[in-house]
Design a protein that fits this description.
Elements lengths: L2 E5 L2 E3 L5 E8 L8 E6 L6 E6 L6 E3 L7 E6 L4 E6 L8 E8 L11 E4 L3 E5 L2
Parallel strand pairs: 2-11
Antiparallel strand pairs: 1-3, 3-8, 4-5, 4-9, 5-6, 7-8, 9-10, 9-11
C-alpha cells in the first residue's frame, strides 16, 4: 500500500533552516506529482508547495516563495522540502502528500494520500 514517511523536523531559531524528507513506497513514484502541506494549532491544513512527476514544474504558497524549495529524487523515491529563513509563523506539522495526477496541484483536496507528518517549531 501507499506509504509516505516524513522526517527532518525539529526546533530551530528564527532565521534558521531545516530540510524535510519524505520517503515514498507502495506506488510508482515518478508517475505522480507530489506536494507538502502544513497545519498549525488551531488552524486548518494549508497547501505549501508542489512538484510535477519529473520535477520540471513547481508551485509555492505565496508566503514561502524565496524561502522554501521543493525537490525530488525519483531514483530514491524521496521528496524534499528545504526551509530557509524560517519565521515563527512557519511553526506547524508538515505533511508529505501524493497527488492524484502528474502535474502539481495547489489545492489541498487534490492529494489522495498523506503521511504522518513531521513537526517544525520555530522559536528562540
Amino acid at each position: 500500500e501507499v506509504q509516505l514517511v516524513e522526517s527532518g523536523g525539529g526546533l530551530v531559531p528564527p532565521g534558521g533552516s531545516l530540510r524535510l524528507s519524505c520517503k515514498a513506497s507502495g506506488f510508482v513514484f515518478d508517475n505522480y506529482a507530489m506536494g507538502w502541506a502544513r497545519q498549525a494549532p488551531g488552524k486548518g491544513p494549508e497547501w505549501v508547495a508542489s512538484i510535477s512527476w519529473n520535477g520540471d514544474k513547481t508551485a509555492y504558497k505565496e508566503s514561502t516563495k524565496g524561502r522554501f524549495t521543493i525537490s525530488r529524487d525519483n531514483a530514491r523515491n524521496t521528496l524534499y522540502l528545504r526551509l530557509d529563513s524560517l519565521k515563527s509563523e512557519d511553526t506547524a506539522m508538515y505533511y508529505c502528500g501524493k497527488d492524484f495526477g502528474m502535474l502539481p496541484s495547489v489545492n489541498y483536496d487534490a492529494y489522495d494520500t498523506w503521511g504522518q507528518g513531521t513537526q517544525v517549531t520555530v522559536s528562540s
